[in-house]
Amino acid sequence: MVARVAALVAYPGYLQQWRRRSSSGTELVYLPYQELGNWMGLLRNSALFHWALVPFFKQWRIMHVLLDHCMDSIFAPKSSSISSLSSSALLSRFLEVSSSRKSSSLTFIGSRPFRPSSYSTTFAMASNDFSKPKIITGDFGYVLEDVPHFTDYIPDLSTYSNPLQDNPAFSVVKQYFVHVDDSVPQKIVVHKDSPRGIHFRRAGPRQKVYFDSDEVHACIVTCGGLCPGLNTVIREIVYSLYHMYGVTTVLGIDGGYRGFYARNTIALTPKVVNDIHKRGGTILGTSRGGHDTSKIVDSIQDRGINQVYIIGGDGTQKGASVIFEEIRRRGLKVVVAGIPKTIDNDIPVIDKSFGFDTAVEEAQRAINAAHVEAESVENGIGLVKLMGRYSGFIAMYATLASRDVDCCLIPESPFYLDGKGGLFEYIEKQLKENGHMVIVIAEGAGQELLSESMQSRNQQDASGNKLLQDVGLWISQGIKDYFSRQKTMAINLKYIDPTYMIRAVPSNASDNVYSTLLAQSAVHGAMAGYTGFTSGL
Length: 537
Hints:
alpha/beta, Rossmann fold, 4-stranded parallel beta sheet
């Protein structure tokens, strides 16, 4: 097991920084990426979680605010520097801000470990009263933030023995079932004099379940943008329901939320989903928007569905939370289980989202191509734009993986172009020293610099995401214009935009394993009667 602090530093995982002030007084942070290898160790072998949907999307955005307190700008690896800020000092600042801003309503359930060093957890969708999660206290400062369960609002429910007890593939495993009082600490590394702190229910198979196999009518829906691993999650939910719990009725909702009330369902069996993990995209189709709570819950009720598995990003999980609240209001015995999906990896508390490793692997190929192009000509510049609407995880990890990037621009850190210490000056310096350079920019970086009308800035897609201007084309033209004005050297710039290529591919081995863990944990939680939760590592 690795300290929970890994999850805290994963978001601003770029902690070793150097600062200097420009002539305009703006404080810049230069990032020598070669020094980040030691921090990467903190991001490995972490714990698997499920969590509350409403606090989930609240925390999602809080992390961006936290970064503002930790850094002013990150953009130029390999840059010379004047003074330094120790990584431990920056981490202390981050943890202090994180502690003061953390949502009190965030709740988890931990899950059965896939291996001894890996734990899975479930986060509950909180009720409308976010300030009052279910709290259980114990000795030495122990605090358990509990998770919604059928028994909270439906009395006298029958329980059944878990079918896994009679399954020869699982019954031979000692201590396979999770004890009802098992919990996972939010922080694994603590001071010896510290209180035990917040814990979350451990997820995984229970000895007693709240569904008979024959009564389960499950459905799966995928919403939002594509992500490597979507088909793997779908496949493993189906396989887990069929082969672990004997469930034979699993439906796929076609085309996102609106598929609940506007389209037919797709019957999902192990045979149907057998090879889908080898394909990109989602066999169920996806869409943005289309959320109509009443129509969706009416459809769930009319079809006799009692387990709903929702795979999607922050907008999707907001919708899932509303669906859960309506189901609870109606007193229905229906599980709502979410699996968070974002290729950007910008989910707090957990270490990564599924598909992220694959996206970084694909992004690195584009960077390698840019490096070859830049290195092959005089004063060559390779510019690569990668996904990252609000976070620079893909850009930063691909930069770390490639080892060929001279400058990485991310949304968390503003930068400027002209003047002393600006981006253009840095590019010119690198070309004079090395004869070529590679720049990586996340799609959300530098948006405040784009000279577009406020009207176009405020446009949104169907999920409520802000429509971004193409910063890659804009900065590419800006670099060309700068050197044209300077007339000091002729440059050869190649712009590569693999944006959608990195997400429309099958997941790699790492993401396949992770997606399997997420799917199995969601199914175990649903069969155990927990509802209003989502899962993540």
